[in-house]
Amino acid sequence: MSVYSLPLRTAVLTATLSFSALFAAPALAFSDDEARRAILELRGQIKQLTEQNQQARIQLADQMEAIRHEMATMRGQMETLNWQQELEKRSSQAQSGGTASTQASDPQEQAVYDAAMGLFRSGKYKEAASSLASFIQTYPESALVPEARFYRGSSMYASKDFKGSIQGLQGMVKSSPDDPRAPDALLVIAASQIELNDLAGAKATLQRIVKDYPQASAAETAKSRLKLLQ
């Protein structure tokens, strides 16, 4: 073996290793770039999933709110149907004389009132409301005024003048809180409030019936309707 063979082999080996290292270095750098790119892509995916999750929660909340609104509307419709049935019952009672607890001393006064009630009994609620309003204006001191105001408010409710019904019946209850029809007037007010989507007002009105008129039959009706509005 030549004395130059060992150093030569060492030089060749060193050169080979250096050459290999030259190509290995970029490979290592490329792997780091790929890792960074993967991390950035993962972060982007996580951000996208988070945003999608937030959007899904918002959509679910909107759907739940829509369902609650629909249920409240259905409860309101049930309340309306219940009151309409009671209104028809009252109309039948008025027709048979079952609610005529007061009579006017003046025959002409009684005749005017009976004519207005005839419109109510025949389902001509707009005309009845107008005639009853005229009666109240003509005979403001009549003993029939509280009753006339009740049926006027009921007629306005039946003809879908809910704001007018509330205003008229609130005046009737305020001026005649001890009248037997006062709790029934509050029931009509609550029904009108439900029609106007004033559920908080309807609850307060029904609670007032239970509190102020606990012995009236309207109190039991108010309790059942409060359960529907929970």
CATH class of the domain at 160-229: Mainly Alpha
Percent of residues in helical segments? over 70%
Terminus-to-terminus distance: 106 Å
Indicate the proportion of strand residues: under 5%
Q: Would you summarize the structure shown here?
A:
This protein has 230 residues and is mostly helical. It has helices at residues 5-96, 107-121, 125-138, 145-158, 162-175, 182-195, 199-212, 217-228. The longest helix has 92 residues, at 5-96.
Describe this structure in words.
The protein has 230 residues and is mainly alpha-helical. Among the domains are: 49-89; 105-148, no CATH class; 160-229, Tetratricopeptide repeat domain (Serine Threonine Protein Phosphatase 5, Tetratricopeptide repeat, Alpha Horseshoe), CATH 1.25.40.10. Helix content is 82%, strand content 0%. It has helices at 5-96, 107-121, 125-138, 145-158, 162-175, 182-195, 199-212, 217-228. Helix 2 (107-121) packs antiparallel against helix 3 (125-138), helix 4 packs antiparallel against helix 5 and helix 4 (145-158) runs parallel beside helix 6. The longest helix has 92 residues, at 5-96. The protein is rod-shaped and about 110 Å long. Mean pLDDT is 79; it is low at 1-6, 17-25 and 94-100.
